[in-house]
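Reproducibility note. Readers wishing to regenerate the assembly model reported in the main text can use the exact inputs given here. Chain order matters: entities are listed in the order in which they were concatenated for prediction.
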Amino acid sequence: MSVTRPSPREPVDAESKVGEDLSNHRVELRLWLRLLTCANLIEAEIRRRLRETFDTTLPRFDLMAQLERAPDGILLGELSRRMMVSNGNVTGLVERLVQEGLIERQVSERDRRAALVRLTARGAETFAAMARAHSDWVAELLAGLPIEDQKALWSRLGDLKLSVRGAISPGGPDGVLTDTIEAETKP
Amino acid sequence: MSVTRPSPREPVDAESKVGEDLSNHRVELRLWLRLLTCANLIEAEIRRRLRETFDTTLPRFDLMAQLERAPDGILLGELSRRMMVSNGNVTGLVERLVQEGLIERQVSERDRRAALVRLTARGAETFAAMARAHSDWVAELLAGLPIEDQKALWSRLGDLKLSVRGAISPGGPDGVLTDTIEAETKP
DNA sequence: GCAAAATAGTTTAAGGTTAAAAGAAATTGC
DNA sequence: GCAATTTCTTTTAACCTTAAACTATTTTGC
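Running the prediction on these inputs yields the following structure tokens for the assembly.
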């Protein structure tokens, strides 16, 4: 508005996406929209670079990241749980990564319904390169924020996370345990 | 790990998704993963409730939110820009919403390539209800975080946003203008 | 005027995503 | 033992999403 030209090619971010009446000045809503904007901005750029640089996608990268931490392989179900996506989703992702020769799957001997997946040697190499680049990219994108601010942000986001989890979970002791005890290692 | 049981049904969030070597303790990476966790947690819950309560989806809600702020209608291209999604994406969303009778589209007289979309009366009503609920949901999810912390978080996320935009955009004067001048209204 | 370029949208091919239904194998409870 | 249940995974139908190719229309540059 303050600029005359109709900003012909400027995208508009999520903070203006969900409109619901500007008179509704709830802090919560503004916070959520800004959080969403930040996450989308970063995620979109990471996806773009993964595609451009490694011709791969974020879900594939995520899946391989899980496998990298489980050298002995991992069951599909566990994978789906850790990635927080549906079983069917994992089925498809695994299929494509096997196709690419980056991971391998193998039916469990003890339980013939279950299947183990793990990185292939080539998959491990490929992932190492991607993880390095990924880490650099994130550091680059956040470089404008002083390290102290980053730490403060991280800390407050921890509280936010607890708030959200608290509001979502059935309030059962299970969720509480998970949040408090396993906190940052596996929340 | 600190808990004996294998946590049979506990999902694991994004902070453990991208694994790249735990010895890499970059603050940036940890911050990004936590940010992603928070955003995903909230977004998933909002999507779930939109489906459960209104039998709709977040993209549809977003689209209607844009239309609500443009009572005189809006061009598809402008819509796609504001939503930060591709043209083709908007084509499909509009199609479905027209089908549902929530929006209407109309070819422009002056430019027969262009099409205007706007909310129908029923669409406006429906959206009003959804927006109210949406606002309440967000407030509920964030309720555990003191209002002062929310404001602080919002403020720091503003800096983060600038950092990311600065790192992404070609550094041209256009991007700078957009970021500084239009700041929160339409960045 | 009119050919070339730019612009507005749609289509297509590929992939990610889910919920729900279904299939196959293992466990459980008599 | 074996029927009922649970568990692990795949399939299906629907949607969201994009990049690239394509169509239709308008503008621009002579």
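We highlight two features of this model. Chain A has three domains: 12-54, 56-144, 146-187. Residues 1-11, 17-24, 171-187 of chain A have pLDDT under 50 and may be disordered.
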